[in-house]
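step=encode ok
step=design start
structure_in=
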């Protein structure tokens, strides 16, 4: 059965690989699974056909046979459970990798994503500078602990896993412009190692090609 995912027809991240379909593309590439992509306009994302798949009108979604999923973390988990390469075979290591998946999405990502939204939506508000400082302090608090835990290891818990995949996609939002990631040399190197993976490169090139084609049109 062919896997089909949805992605932005014209991504607001301008092809930087920050949209959440990138997580799913990368997971599928790591798992060696072919997939099709259905591109959606912002208008189409709010129409009944897409809302039947994604009740909040977002991307990505995942369809395989009679299975339809939404939420990038849940989709990555589904892929990781069914294919080799993203979760360890050892039960305890597998549980720890899943814990890192949750940590990426529930602990590290919220202030990182809120900072990005704040810079877009609240820049003209009287509280902007205070809120930005608060969010950046929150990010550093989390990265202090993440950096200490990673130390000089290549990955968070032994071999590369879906926990690393999700954590890196969160940290990538800090790579350009914030200066925050650069404060943590081991985390910067961690992200660079992930970006050097062939599966990441294939996923990145695929999503960038969509933006490039849309821009040319």
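sequence_out=
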């Amino acid at each position: 059965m062919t896997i089909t995912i949805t992605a932005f027809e014209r991504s607001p991240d301008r092809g930087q690989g920050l949209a959440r379909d990138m997580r799913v593309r990368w997971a599928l590439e790591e798992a060696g699974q072919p997939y099709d992509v259905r591109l959606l306009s912002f208008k189409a994302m709010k129409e009944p056909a897409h809302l039947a798949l994604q009740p909040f009108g977002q991307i990505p979604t995942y369809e395989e046979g009679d299975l339809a999923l939404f939420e990038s973390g849940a989709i990555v988990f589904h892929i990781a459970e069914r294919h080799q390469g993203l979760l360890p075979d050892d039960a305890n290591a597998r549980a720890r990798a899943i814990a890192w998946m949750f940590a990426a999405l529930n602990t590290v990502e919220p202030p990182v994503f809120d900072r990005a939204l704040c810079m877009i939506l609240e820049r003209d508000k009287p509280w902007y500078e205070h809120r930005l400082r608060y969010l950046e302090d929150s990010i550093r608090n989390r990265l202090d602990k993440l950096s200490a835990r990673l130390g000089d290891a290549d990955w968070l818990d032994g071999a590369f896993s879906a926990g690393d995949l999700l954590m890196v996609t969160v940290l990538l939002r800090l790579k350009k412009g914030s200066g925050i990631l650069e404060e943590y040399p081991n985390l910067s190197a961690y992200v660079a190692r992930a970006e050097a993976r062939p599966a990441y490169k294939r996923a990145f090139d695929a999503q960038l090609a969509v933006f490039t084609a849309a821009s040319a049109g």
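step=design ok
step=annotate ok -> Residues 91-121 form the longest helix (31 residues).
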